[in-house]
């Protein structure tokens, strides 16, 4: 009976962790339009939370999150406080980006930019319409 109780408690603990809501984040717009693709505030929060989880676990799918370099010629306005460093993570609709060596998934063109230390939202950006292949343009936040 004791081991049944231990197993039951372990199952309940795992279920509680999986059912925990995503961390509420301040300063996130109600949505953003990146080159014609719309992302909700939930999509943006999901991406930042996934980035934080990946950093905490040491898992960096397809090398994300990674450092975002703020180039003045791209005319990107960062709404977060501080002077960086900043990180970027792929935006997806309805789920968090994941990829692995065995199951590569393209990160797509759209990213969320956040403060590397506080995970505060800074901007949403896209490669769509950028002047160079690796460049960005700002998405239209709502």
Describe this structure in words.
The chain has helices at 2-19, 41-57, and strands spanning 31-34, 37-40, 66-68, 86-90, 110-115, 121-126, 137-138, 140-141. With 142 residues, the chain is an alpha+beta fold. The chain has a domain at 38-98 and 108-142: Roll (Nuclear Transport Factor 2, Chain: A), CATH 3.10.450. It has a five-stranded antiparallel β-sheet with strand order 3-4-5-6-7. A hairpin with a 5-residue loop joins strand 5 (110-115) and strand 6 (121-126). The longest helix is centred in the N-terminal third of the chain and has 18 residues, at 2-19. The relative contact order is 0.21.
Q: Which properties best describe this structure?
A:
single chain; 142 residues; alpha+beta; Nuclear Transport Factor 2, Chain: A; 5-stranded antiparallel sheet; 3-stranded antiparallel sheet; disordered N terminus; RNA binding
- What is the terminal separation in angstroms? 55 Å
CATH architecture annotation of the domain at 38-98 and 108-142: Roll
Helical content class: 10-25%
CATH class of the domain at 38-98 and 108-142: Alpha Beta
Tell me the strand percentage band. 15-25%
Beta strands, count: 8
- What order do the strands of the largest sheet run in, or round the barrel if closed? 3-4-5-6-7
Category by helix and strand content: alpha+beta
**CATH homologous superfamily designation of the domain at 38-98 and 108-142:** Microbial ribonucleases
The CATH topology name of the domain at 38-98 and 108-142 reads Nuclear Transport Factor 2, Chain: A
What would you report as the Rg, rounded to the nearest angstrom? 17 Å
Global morphology: globular
The average pLDDT value, as a whole number, equals 84
> Which residues sit in consecutive blocks of at least 5 with pLDDT less than 50?
2-22
**How many H/I helices?**
2
Please summarize the sheet with the most strands: 5 strands, antiparallel
What is the succession of H and E elements?
HEEHEEEEEE
Protein name: Ustilago Sphaerogena ribonuclease U2 complexed with adenosine 2'-Monophosphate
Keywords: Disulfide bond, Endonuclease, Hydrolase, Lyase, Nuclease, Signal
Organism: Meira miltonrushii
InterPro entries: N1-like, Ribonuclease/ribotoxin
């Amino acid at each position: 009976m004791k081991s049944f109780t231990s197993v039951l408690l372990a199952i309940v603990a795992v279920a509680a962790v999986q059912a925990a809501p995503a961390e509420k984040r301040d300063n996130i717009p109600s949505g953003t339009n990146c080159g014609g693709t719309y992302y909700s505030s939930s999509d943006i929060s999901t991406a930042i939370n996934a980035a934080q989880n990946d950093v905490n676990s040491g898992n960096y799918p397809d090398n994300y999150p990674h450092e975002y370099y703020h180039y003045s010629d791209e005319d990107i306005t960062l709404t977060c406080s501080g002077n960086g460093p900043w990180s970027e993570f792929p935006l997806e609709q309805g789920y968090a980006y994941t990829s692995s060596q065995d199951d590569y998934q393209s990160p797509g063109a759209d990213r969320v930019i956040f403060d590397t230390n506080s995970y505060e939202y800074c901007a949403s950006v896209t490669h769509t319409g950028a002047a160079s292949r690796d460049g960005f343009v700002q998405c239209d936040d709502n």
